[in-house]
Structures are given as C-alpha cells and as structure tokens.
Automatic annotation (TrEMBL), chain B:
GO annotation, biological process: methylation; mitochondrial tRNA 5'-end processing; positive regulation of mitochondrial translation
Class of this enzyme: transferase
Lineage: Eukaryota, Metazoa, Chordata, Craniata, Vertebrata
Name by which UniProt lists this protein: tRNA methyltransferase 10 homolog C
Region of interest called Disordered, as start-end residue ranges on this chain: 86-111, 465-484
C-alpha cells in the first residue's frame, strides 16, 4: 500500500497545491525513500506545508474531491472535456479561484428602470427629463422593457408618447418594439408593426427580416416567412438560423414538402445547417415517414463532416428510429470500451487506423500543404528539407518519432535533456526504433542541455537537428507519415496550426483521425519514475452504421467540448429481426 | 410646405389633448371642446390631409368613457401617426418627381450597388454603426465583401473614421473662428493706433522664410541621395496584405519619408521591388500628388535590393531573426520589410531573407526593455525613428525611446540608475562613442554627451532649424488633413 500511496500523494501535491513550487517537490522526490523509512510521507509533507504556512487548510480540503474524481487510467487528450478540466486545474495551480467571473456591470447600466404600468405622455416626459442621460432615452427604455419582460402595454404607451411628442417613430425604436413583440409572442402587434414598417420604409434591414421570419413562422401566416427569406436573399446570404426558423414553421404547420425544399436550398447555398434544423426535420420524420432516406442522408452528412449531435437531437433521432414503421429499432445510451466494443450491443466499432488509400492521401497533402506550403522558406529551407528526406530514406522505418523540444519542455524546471533521456530510454527498452527531432542549439552543451545526456540520447535513437530558425513540427509529421501506419509520435502539441494548413475538410478530418490514433502524450511524468502515456483510442469516434446497427456519438449536456475533442457518449441503435 | 404646416399644427393639437388627458372626469367634460378645436383649426387652414381620416377612429374610441378605452387611446395612437405619415410621404414623393427620376436613373445604372446602398441605409436607421456619407468606391468594397460580419466591420470602421474627421473639422473651424476674431481685434487695435504700419515689423532677427527652409531641406535630401546611408524598404509583400493593410503601410511610409526629410542627416530611402502597376504605387500616387511624387528625393525601383547593393552590405531587419543588432553599422544597408500584418504572419520577412540568403538581424528590444505588457510589434515609422536615432546618437537607450511607452514597462538599466550604463549595452556605448568622434553632426545632436564641445554650426541656425521643423510639422499635419 505504501509505495502506491506515495506517488499519488506526490501527484496531488504537485497539482493541487498552488504555492508549493516545483523545486520543493523535486527535492521531496529525492528524499522519498528516506522519509518513507522514517514513517510516512504525510508527516513530512505537512511539515513542509507548515513551514511555508501560506496554504489554507480550507483550500486544501475543498480541492480534495477533484482528486477522487480522477479516473484510474489516463484519458486521451482528445476526450471531451479534457481541455476544460486541464484549464480548471491550471487555474487552481496558479491560485486563481474559479468563482471570479468577469463582472459585466457595464451592460446593466445601459438599461433603465422600467415603470410598472403604462404611463401617459406627460408622465413619460417627466421621466425622460429626470433621467441624467435623456439622449436615446426611448431606445434604452425599450431595451429595458424587453430585458425585464415587462407588460407590452408599457411599451405601447412609450411608443404613443414618442409618436405624439416627435411626430414619428424612428425605425430603430420600431425595431426594438418588434423584437419585443416577436419574443413576447404578441403576434397581432407584430402584424401591425410589419404593415407599418412595410408601408413606411421601402426595404427593411436584415435584422428586421430575421425577426419577422422568426415571428411569422410561429403563426398562421408562416408562409409569409418564405417571402421574407427571399427578401433577405436579395441582400445577403441568409443565416442558418433563418432557414431553421422557416423550416420550423413549415414543419409545425404540417407542410413537410416545403421544409425539405428549404433544406435543399440551404444545402445548395453551402450553408452549414444548425442542429435545430435537423431537429425539426427528424420531428417531421416521426410524423411522416416518407422522407426516411433523406433523414438517413443527414446522418451520413454528420458522418462525412464529423458533426456530433447534441443530446436533444440525439434523443429525437432515437425516437425517430424507434417509431419507424417497417423496421423495429431500439436505442440505448451507451459508452464504448477502450477495446472498441460497444457496452450495449457488444459490436465492434470502426478502427481508428486509416485505410491505405486515405493514408497515402494524407501523406501527400501534408507534404504539399503543411511542409512546403506556399513558401518553403517560411518553415525551413529547401536544402534542409532535402537533407532530411535523404536522412529518412537512409534509415529503417521508425516506430516512434519524438518531438524533442516539446517533450523536454513538458516538465518545467527539471533539466530538459534529462526528461528527454528518460522518455527515450523508456521507449528504447521497449525495443522500438526511435527518431528524435530537435534543433541545433541542443547540441551546444549548456545547463539545460547536458552533453552527456545528449550523447546517450544519440546512442539510443536516431537524431536529426534542424536549424534554430526552422520549425520542427513539419519534420515530425513528415517522418511519422513516411514510416508507415504503425509509427506513433510523441508530442504535447495538438498540431492545430498544421491541421489548419490542410486545404480540404476531408484531409483535415483524416489528419485528425490519424492524430488521434498515433499521438502519444506524456502523462504526469515525474523524473525517475516509469514513463506513462495517455491512452490512444483504438476506435474511431464518428457516426457509423453496419447492417443492423447505428452508432452515433453525441455531446452530453454540461461538458464543454473543444473543437479538437471528441464526445465519449454514444447512441447505440440496433435493429431487431 | 403648407402640407407640412397642417401636419405640425395637427400634432400640436394632439399633443395638447394628450397632455390634458389624465384626469378622468375632466376628460369627459372636455371631450367636445378639443375636438371642436381640432375641427376648427383644420377648417381654418382649409387643407385637410389624410392623417385626419386615419386618426378618426381614435376619437371615436374616446366616446366610451371607460377606463380601458382611454388606455387604448393612449396605446395605439402611434400607429395612426405612422400611417398618416405614409400618406404624407406619398404625396410628397409625387411632388419631388424629378429627383425621384434621377434616383431611378442611378438605380438602373447599377442595381447591385443600389441594393447595397439601401442595405447600408437601413442598417444606419436600425442603429448600427454605419457612416452617414458613403462613396461609391466604398460601397463597391462593401458589396464585394462576402460575409455579413465583414460588411458590418468595414462599415463600423468607416463610421469611426467619419467621426474622427468630423470632430477634427469642427475643431479646425473653431480654431479658425478664434483666429479670425483675434485678427480682427488686432487689426482694430492697430487701426486705432496708426494706419498702414502693420506690414513692416521692426525686429533685429532676420526673417526666416519658409522657402529658405524648404530649400535647405531639399539640399539635405539631395545630399543624402548622393552621399547618405541607404535604407531600403522592401515593397514585395503586396500579395500578403489586404487592402486596408496596404493603406496602413503607405500611411506609415509617408510618415517615415516626412520624418526622414526633416532630419538633420537623412537616410537615402530606397523603395525596392516597387511594382509600377501595383497597389502600393497606386496608393502612393494617390496620397502624394503625381507631381510631389515625381519630385520626391527618394529612390524607387522595381529592382530587387540584392541587384542594387553588394550582398555582403545588406542586412535584413526582421523580428524573427535569431541575431540581435547590437551596434548600428554605418556602412551597412538595412532593409525593412514594408509589411503591416493585422493578422499575424510570423516568419514572412524571415522567409524572404532566407530565400535571398541575406544576413538578418532584429532590434535589441528584449535586451533593453521590460516587454511584458504590450504587443510586440512596431509600426514602420517607429522602426525608422529608432534607426534614425541610433544612427545619430549611437545609443540604443536613446533610440528605443521611440518605442511607444504603452507597450513596455521601462528600460532595464533605468531601474539600476543612469550611471550604471553597462550591462547589455556597455560595450556598445563605448563603441558608439568612438564612432561619434568621427561624426560631427551626430555629436551635435546627442545633447547629453557632446554638450561640452563647441558646436560647429552657430546655434541660431539650430534654433531656426528646429523652429522651421516644428512649423513644417504643423504644415504637414494640415496637408494631411486636406488630403484626407
């Protein structure tokens, strides 16, 4: 039990005590055996804490639960929510409490106190005169009425006052009033405002059109929303939300054909539909099963573009599957084992390994877009690239490529060469053929780059050092991709800048898939201990189908997923025969 | 016009009614009289408008003396007002027939632009940040932008610019008025004293004419073109930049050129890789007039810098360089990339230098400044000023004073005290001092150290020069304003 306990304690010290500097911890590490003999680390560490005396016991306790929450095995960096969790940890480490939210008082000031009943013109006038900032009083007041969702009659009385006082109502104020009507569901008023606006102004602005589309599609006059959409179309490209509103209107009034024509128009314009649109279409599908093929094509679309539905959409998809008349489907929420087996239906998911064809595609486009790019000189020089290609071709294919500088710097102040050496030795023990990439300055013996260590590294691995002003990541990608599908790489870098260099969406997805399957990330490395890496997933997180199943990964509620992360929950749909 | 009057009077009536409405009981009693007034006023004007008819229902409502009905009268009055305005507008539209026709002609000429104009106008009415006046050229740019947010951003930019321009204009106008008033006062006073003597002033200082200063500056420029140290601006980054970035670059280059022209010992400016058909050239011609551009004392060339100077003399200044420029070498030709990157483009100029296999260097910013707070980029004219200062004084401390203060947290050596000058710089200053002895003008400029030695030029010229420089500064500003 003892040895198990110690590293854990150390880990938690390192992570959850902001004040303890790394130096102390490292020092602590050296004395571990000694103090173990003396009877336990805990006394030692508390003493140490007391010496520093800055840490509040309360803080320490409150952070305790985080430790327990930690999974037994290190999760992949690409699992949803990891980035968020890391950010919180980092904040704790830096001593910033999570509760400190940026105060947005500045916005509140803009809104005025709203009267509780409709006022007469004279009362409004008095109110305006009393206000310290009478300019734009009406507009700010209208905003305030909207914000506080007060009675619409107050807004009406304000408009009446403005109309009588100035002889007209400005467009901006009308627009605010329209917002109020649309969000408050005052349809009759909305019609009136629309008529007035239409007759008073030759065209409306895009914001007004969007509001009206939203409003009209919820009423009996939903067909007018289509006309309005056409009007927007003349000025600018409509937003996905406009389409989603129109489609919602059509679906709610039972006109599924119109909904689908609008959806096709949206696709024609290369607009990315939002999830609400799909929600309405699937809801339509539940009521009417004529368009099942099209709905399946939406699922294909999700697969092709690596889109993950939100939990509400996932539920609707499940419902739609379950009420298909000709086939009997059942849906369950499930997770997937690390081996790639669905917990619910026991079927094996698609592997994360790329097919030969995809792999070749990816290799070529990385070479063309990432390494060479528009200007070879930006990241390297042609001579250097040529010599590297030569270097790679002369050596046997590598099993693992290490981004030397990235690995070396992953542990703050510890001698950088030492960290790198530890990782290289570990991989060397596993009998792998290793390539270490670095820059030439690593070879000049300095404090952080010990010559002795560097010599050892060079014995255990193939090494290539680029110019100090060249980037090393492109070389890493080149070497890893040219060694074949079995080759992994070690780096903490998420390579997002390189992914962005790729020209097409498809290659970007291929790159991401390859990255998820081949990137090794150091996990809580402590010098002198065994080097551990985070798990690499063996299955691909993407909507997928086989003869009798559909597996759709979806975003859970409450987890903040970064763009480079993939969800962990699955919707498992199986067909019963 | 009569129509408008009728409208106004009607509104006045309405306003009166509304103000007098609140007391419920009174309302009942009074109901007839305002209505009668109303009718009589209309009779009086004998010009009924359609607004009258639309507002009738409201008056009918008032017949019912119930609470809610009174409320309703209050609430929907704005609708009738707005509707009546539509009617009014229609009539006015028919009256201004020719202007409408003119507009229509314009519309038929360029319908897409007109649609954009309309959109911009509606955005303005909806309270978005949009300029009040917009030129056709700007509209074309708006129409070409693909996304809505890009359009909004550009329009916001224009509106902010317009705001500045307006404020500036107002200020100028105010100043002008003040000046005129002052002048008038002066002339009045003088007129009182003696007539006609205001033209000649009795002074012991020789009048220094603007013309003489211009000539002096011209000579200096010519001298620099003959003997001065070249400084190259590499104008080859046009494709990497957006239109706005190019405009910014030209702005900064103009500033640079002006600063160089007025300095004691100017650089010989070279604009290399300047494509005569490119956007840079077009913009330069637009900002300078063609005539001024032809007479400018700088060298422009479509050639590359490596074809104009021996390769070993060239040093490319780029922020990504691994080498630090510790001492300023008067025999080298420094190249500055004329590049403004609002979206960061790291390594672009370094790539260029690598391609041409040129020596690179960066300014010793990290060596001298605590640079934690601000963004680490400098405009072209700032870099020029730094180079100019280091050329004149030989001290980076002096030169880096031109780094905007908001960007850094002070000098390194300033903390230790001014006597302790060594550290990063010690060697450089000694060397620079040695160089100073060979350069009498530099000596004269570096006030602190060279003060003891007798200046070679008479101080009065210096005074005049600085005065002249200040004057030409203001003139330049004025010119800029007119140009804008």
């Amino acid at each position: 039990m003892g040895p198990m306990l110690i590293p854990n304690t150390r880990v938690c010290l390192q992570h959850f005590i902001p004040v303890l500097s790394r130096n102390i911890l490292n020092g602590l590490h050296k004395y571990v055996p000694a103090c173990f003999k003396l009877g336990g680390l805990s006394t030692f560490s508390t003493k140490d804490l007391n010496k520093h005396g800055v840490i509040k016991r309360k803080d320490f306790k409150s952070k305790d639960f985080v430790i327990k929450e930690k999974p037994a095995f290190p999760k992949s960096v690409f699992a949803a929510g990891t980035a968020r969790r890391t950010a919180v940890l980092m904040k704790l480490k830096a001593g910033i409490s999570d509760l400190e939210e940026p105060s947005d008082n500045s916005r509140k000031i803009n809104y005025l106190e709203v009267p509780d009943r409709p006022l007469t013109a004279s009362e409004w006038k008095r109110l305006k005169e009393d206000n310290e900032r009478p300019d734009r009083f009406e507009i700010r007041m209208m905003g305030g009425i909207f914000k506080s969702s007060a009675d619409i009659n107050i807004a009406k009385s304000l408009l009446a006052y403005v109309a009588v006082d100035s002889g007209t109502v400005a467009y901006e104020l009308l627009l605010r009033y329209l917002t109020l009507c649309v969000y408050g569901g005052h349809w009759a008023e909305m019609y009136d405002v629309y008529d007035i606006m239409k007759s008073r102004f030759r065209t409306l602005d895009t914001g007004a059109y969007s509001l009206l589309i939203k409003g009209f599609s919820k009423t009996e006059r939903w067909e007018e929303a289509l006309v309005l959409l056409e009007n927007i179309n003349k000025i600018i490209t409509p937003s996905p939300r406009n389409y989603s509103d129109v489609i919602a209107g059509a679906v709610q009034h039972g006109n599924f054909a119109t909904a689908w024509t609008q959806y096709n128009q949206l696709l024609e314009k290369d607009i990315i539909p939002n999830q609400d649109t799909w929600k309405y279409l699937f809801e339509a599908g539940i009521a009417d099963h004529e368009n099942d093929d099209k709905l399946l094509s939406i699922l294909e679309h999700m697969r092709d573009n690596q889109i993950y539905p939100e939990v509400t959409l996932a539920n609707i998809i499940r419902k739609w599957f379950e009420c298909r008349p000709d086939q009997k489907w059942t849906g369950r929420i499930s997770t997937v084992k690390p081996s790639g087996v669905c917990q619910s239906c026991r079927s094996l998911l698609e592997s994360i390994q790329l097919t030969e064809e995809d792999y070749a595609d990816l290799r070529d486009s990385v070479m063309k877009n990432v390494i060479e790019g528009k200007d070879v000189f930006k990241k390297t020089t042609p001579e250097e690239l040529e010599s590297f290609k030569h270097f790679v071709s002369k050596r046997p294919p590598f099993d693992v490529v290490i981004d030397g500088l990235n690995v070396a710097h992953s542990l703050g102040r510890v001698s950088q060469s030492q960290t790198l050496l530890a990782v290289v030795s570990e991989l060397n023990q596993q009998g792998l053929s290793i390539l270490v990439l670095g820059r030439k300055h690593m070879l000049f013996s300095t404090q952080s780059w010990n010559r002795h260590h560097m010599n050892q590294i060079q014995q255990k691995a193939h090494c290539f050092f680029t110019e100090n002003i060249s980037e090393d990541d492109p070389f890493l990608l080149y070497a890893a991709l040219h060694s074949g599908n079995h080759c992994n790489f070690v780096s903490r870098d998420l390579m997002r800048d390189h992914k962005a260099c790729l020209s097409s969406g498809r290659t970007r997805q291929l790159f991401f898939k390859w990255q998820r399957g081949h990137q090794l990330v150091l996990y809580n490395f402590v010098p002198g201990k065994k080097v551990r890496f985070r798990k690499i997933q063996s299955y691909d997180t993407i909507a997928q189908t086989s003869a009798n199943t559909w597996h759709i990964p979806f975003d859970e509620e409450g987890t903040e997923r970064s763009t480079y992360e993939v969800p962990q929950k699955w919707l498992c749909l199986t067909r019963l025969n | 016009m009569s129509m408008r009057f009728a409208k106004l009077s009607l509104l006045n009536e309405l306003r009166q009614c509304c103000h007098s409405l609140p007391p419920r009981l009174v309302l009942k009693k009074r109901y007839l009289s305002p209505s009668a007034n109303f009718a009589s006023s209309l009779n009086h004007l004998q010009n009924p408008t359609r607004s009258l008819s639309t507002s009738w229902p409201k008056w009918k409502d008032v017949h019912q003396p119930k609470d809610e009905e009174k409320e309703k009268l209050d609430l929907d009055i704005w609708k009738s007002v707005m509707r009546s305005q539509v009617a009014e507008e229609e009539t006015s539209r028919t009256s201004d027939d020719d202007t409408v026709q003119g507009e229509a002609r314009e519309m038929s000429q360029d319908p897409p632009l007109e649609a954009t104009r309309e959109m911009v106008e509606m955005w303005r009415q909806a309270g978005k940040k949009v300029p009040e006046d917009i030129t056709n050229e700007q509209l074309e740019i708006v129409a070409d932008l693909t996304s809505k947010s890009a359009k909004k951003k550009y329009l916001k930019f224009l509106s902010i610019k317009e705001g500045y321009k307006k404020a500036n204009k107002e200020k100028q106008e105010k100043k002008k008025m003040e000046w005129l008033a002052k002048k008038e006062e002066m002339s009045k006073e003088e007129g009182d004293d003696e007539e006609g003597s205001s033209k000649l002033k009795n002074t012991f200082i020789l009048h220094y004419w603007q013309r003489s200063l211009d000539r002096l500056i011209g000579w200096q420029g010519a001298q620099a073109m003959r003997f001065g140290q070249p400084l190259v601006f590499d104008m080859s980054y046009e494709p990497q930049m957006t239109r706005r970035e190019i405009e910014n670059t030209i702005n900064q280059l103009l500033e640079t050129e002006g600063c160089n022209r007025r300095s004691v010992e100017p650089f010989h400016l070279h604009f290399c890789n300047l494509n005569p058909e490119g956007a840079y050239h077009k913009e330069l011609l637009k900002r300078y007039s063609t005539e001024a551009w032809e007479n400018l004392l700088i060298t422009t060339s479509p050639q590359q810098h490596i074809d104009m100077f021996p390769r070993e003399q060239l040093v490319y200044l780029t922020a990504d360089s691994p080498n630090v420029l510790r001492t300023f070498d008067h025999n080298k030709v420094y190249i500055i990339g004329a590049l403004v990157d609002r979206s960061n483009l790291p390594g672009v100029s370094l790539a260029n230098a690598k391609r041409l296999k040129l020596t690179t260097a960066r300014l010793p910013l990290d060596e001298h400044l605590h640079w934690e707070c601000g963004t680490k980029n400098l405009s072209l004219d700032r870099i020029f000023r730094i180079l100019m200062a280091v050329k004149e004084t030989g001290s980076w401390m002096e030169a880096l004073k031109f780094v905007p203060q908001r960007k850094h947290a002070g000098f390194y050596s300033a903390k230790k005290g001014s006597t302790d000058f060594k550290g990063a710089e010690g060697r450089d200053t000694i060397q620079a001092n040695r160089e100073l002895k060979n350069l009498f003008i530099s000596k004269q400029r570096s006030k602190g150290r060279a003060e003891g030695k007798a200046p070679l030029q008479s101080p009065i010229i210096n005074v005049l020069k600085s005065k002249g420089a200040a004057r030409s500064d203001t003139q330049k500003a004025r010119k800029n304003w007119w140009e804008e």
